[in-house]
Amino acid sequence: MAAVTDSSQDIPVEELDRAYATIMASIVEHADAPHYAELAPMLGVEVERARRIMHELCAVTPGWMHPGTDWLGSFPPFNVQPTQYRIQIGERHGWFGQ
Predict the structure, then answer these.
(1) CB atoms within 10 A of CB 58
(2) Of the four listed, 20, 50, 61, 84, which is most buried by Cβ atoms within 10 Å?
(3) Could you tell me if 93 and 86 are in contact, meaning their C-beta atoms sit under 8 angstroms apart?
(4) pTM (2 d.p.)
């Protein structure tokens, strides 16, 4: 059986899932999203592929890139840019919600 892929980018769903989990873990750990150049070695892919993966994730999730850039602006439930919705868990803080 062939892997399910995205027709526009030909990125396997499993690769998108792994990237989603990696980005989410990075946000939880560092309170910031990785740039695609940082994401590439985390996924073991070329930098350009990591950029395409990030854009594709934003196309298939409620996340979005900051307009005109390759920077994540929002990756639900987190907002990468500061908002009035601050998140704190115990003594840890630094996240923003949508």
Answers:
(1) 16
(2) 50
(3) yes
(4) 0.83
Q: Give the domain ranges of the chain.
A: 13-97
Over residues 21-47, the pLDDT tens digits come to 999 999 999 999 999 999 999 999 999
Rg (alpha carbons) of the chain, rounded to whole number:
14
DSSP-derived 3-state class of residue 96: strand
Other CB atoms within a 10 A radius of the CB of residue 96 amount to: 18
Asked, as a colleague might, if the bond just before 77 is cis with ω within 30 of 0, I would say yes
Q: Which amino acid, residue 9?
A: Q
pLDDT band at 1 (very low <50, low <70, confident <90, very high): very low
Q: How wide is the angle at C-alpha 48 spanned by C-alphas 43 and 51, nearest 5°?
A: 70
Name the nearest CA neighbour of 17 among 4, 28, 8, 7: 4
Yes or no: domain 13-97 corresponds to CATH 2.60.40:
no
* Residue 3 in this model has a pLDDT that exceeds 50: no
CA angle 69, 70, 74 (to 5 degrees): 95
